[in-house]
Design goal:
The protein contains 9 helices and 7 strands; from the N terminus they run αββαβββββααααααα. By secondary structure, the protein is an alpha+beta fold. The protein has 2 domains: about 110 residues, Roll (Ubiquitin-like (UB roll)); about 130 residues, Alpha-helical ferredoxin (Fumarate Reductase Iron-sulfur Protein, Chain B, domain 2, Orthogonal Bundle). Helix 4 packs antiparallel against helix 6 and helix 6 crosses helix 9. It is elongated and about 65 Å long. The N and C termini lie far apart (about 60 Å). The N terminus is likely disordered. Bound molecules: iron/sulfur cluster and FE2/S2 (inorganic) cluster. The site of iron/sulfur cluster has 14 residues, from helix 5 and helix 6.
Length: about 270
């Protein structure tokens, strides 16, 4: 293990908790890997004067500024919206996808969640279907291919129909909206001992399959998306339930049961036709 000392002492870091105030001191063990086919290792950094009000990603930003000031390569990690919407942030924090707070994406996690003096291990998602590209960045294009296989509806061109023309029962609309909350982060895969993508795929199948607009392709959708999920090398679901525990949108494992029912029904209907 290489020891590197970085002290985040930039103005940005100090300003976040008041001039002259003392912040937290953290020891970070961060996965560093120069490329997909290179060996990786945990590298130790000392992060000093960290504001409790910083987000986890801001803490890494400050660390990176310091690394660059010292002429070192910054730590590569994914982020985009930084408000729990896009699903890009994807860090394994002390062995838990997105860290210790339930229903919280990495970008919404604040340093006050941790104790002063704590050691934090930061790794990328670990899954055969999500190969590491660099440091903490993994390739999640397998999810894109599952969506491309069937995560859409066919709509007739022309003016949109009035929304009130299509009546949907409130419980059904709520269930569809809950499933649609999936941000495609991949935490469910990272947490699953089998590396299964069932919660993600089930959420995408459910949010269209529950609504009238999703009915024409319902059977074709579930068959194609499950087939693509298998083809990507994700493991099978054996109902461990780890996925729903770490999902930042708290999507229920019941969604997988719904997908399995849809899959069986679609298979029967296809066999009949
Ligand atoms: S189901 Fe939850 S954990 Fe899985 S990709 Fe969607 S939001 Fe992320
Ligand atoms: S950066 Fe978009 S959800 Fe975290």
């Amino acid at each position: 293990m290489t020891q590197t000392v970085a002290e985040p002492a930039t103005e940005r870091g100090r300003d976040a908790h008041g001039a002259g105030g003392r912040g937290m001191h953290l020891t970070l063990h961060v996965w560093r890997q120069t490329g997909p086919n290179e060996p990786g290792r945990l590298v130790r950094y000392e992060a000093r004067d960290v504001s409790p009000d910083m987000s986890f990603l801001e803490m890494l930003d400050v660390l990176n500024e310091d690394l660059m000031a010292q002429g070192q390569e910054p730590i590569a990690f994914d982020s985009d919206c930084r408000e729990g919407i896009c699903g890009m942030c994807s860090l394994m924090i002390n062995g838990i996808p997105h860290g210790p707070l339930r229903g919280t994406a990495t970008c919404q996690l604040h340093m006050r969640t941790f104790r002063d003096g704590e050691t934090i291990t930061i790794e990328p998602w670990r899954s055969r279907a999500f190969p590491v590209l660099k440091d903490l960045v993994v390739d999640r294009s397998a999810f894109d291919r599952i969506i491309a296989a069937g995560g859409y509806i066919t709509a007739t061109p022309g003016g949109p129909r009035d929304a009130n023309e299509i009546l949907i029962a409130k419980p059904t609309a709520d269930e569809a909206m809950d499933a649609a909350a999936c941000i495609g982060c991949g935490a469910c895969v990272a947490a699953c001992p089998n590396g299964s993508a069932s919660l993600f795929t089930a959420a995408k199948v459910a949010h269209l399959g529950l609504l009238p607009q999703g009915q024409p392709e319902r059977d074709r959708r579930v068959l194609a998306m499950v087939a693509q999920m298998d083809a990507e090398g994700f493991g099978g679901c054996t109902l461990h339930g780890e996925c729903q525990e770490v999902c930042p949108k708290e999507i229920s494992i019941d969604t997988i049961s719904r997908m399995n029912r849809d899959f069986l029904t679609a298979n029967l209907r296809t066999a009949d036709s």
